[in-house]
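Researcher: Please translate sequence to structure tokens.
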Amino acid sequence: MKKLKAPEKIGQYSVQECIGQGSMGEIWLCHDPSLDRMLVVKRMQLALRGYEDLVQRFNREVQVLAAMNHPNIVQIYGYWMEKGQLNLSMEFINGWSLKQVLDKSKSLPVWATCSVLWGSLSALVHVHSRRFVHRDLKPGNIMVDFAGQTKLLDFGIARIENQDITIPGTVIGTAAYMSPEQIRGESATELSDIFSLGIIAFEMLVGKHPFKEENVEKTSKNILSKSISSANFPPSVPSELRRFVCRMLAKESSKRSSAYSCLMKLDSIMEGLPRELSHPLSSWLRSVRKEMPLPAAPAWKKSVPQFAWLAGATGAGFVAGLIFYFMLR
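Model: Translation complete:
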């Protein structure tokens, strides 16, 4: 990446360094002296001002983020034009993208995967309730901060349900994380986001992408035709969690559950885990970053199903009855 000369200021913010550069512009780490906090400013390149589709994408991210208020979604602070450049200031996430985590640690422990999934699904419930579809879920768009919190970001190609500015048949998103309907050029729905998150869940649990091949064509073919079953997971993954991810990866969108239903199901799967997993996730991530021995996993106290208690109580009652019967004889 070509090193850019940092401007002294962007708006009222003091510029620290460039932390990202892409086709649309740069991402600058800045300091807000009025509140004494770090933040990020996305700045659109001057040369792109004539490209209406890219300007519209930039504006769309602003529109989506402005409609969101959720702890698992990056916060927007401001949007303005300065010297002919569009600028978007937002929350600075001090952490790693899930892609960086997976590059360093091939897979995540089951409990850590559940924690990241929980935060991602919680964010999606909020996004979908406001009639938005993300359309580009991938490990690079999910952050895990160093406090163990999951954050969803990059809403540049999100769309409002039933309102789409893309041409019909146009493929939008990152090919390796698209749903079958997106591959076919159909409109993405909330259930398309669930499929994409299912791919990410599989990757966290298994340590590899379920469909990825050496080129886009073969990857797309696998997304359309390759089935994922419980046999594709390692033995360490609980059977209930395997079935959960398999359902997220159903080829027919009608067979997938909504984000809310997925969140409720994940809640039951996580029964017995501590409700607050940010601290152990933070400790695990720190150990991965510094290549230190991994900390002990949080205790997963599986409760006995209700029918088992009933059976146990019935059995105990039967034995007690027999003992009482023979004592009276």
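Researcher: Any highlights?
Model: Residues 95-289 form a domain with the Transferase(Phosphotransferase); domain 1 fold (CATH 1.10.510.10).
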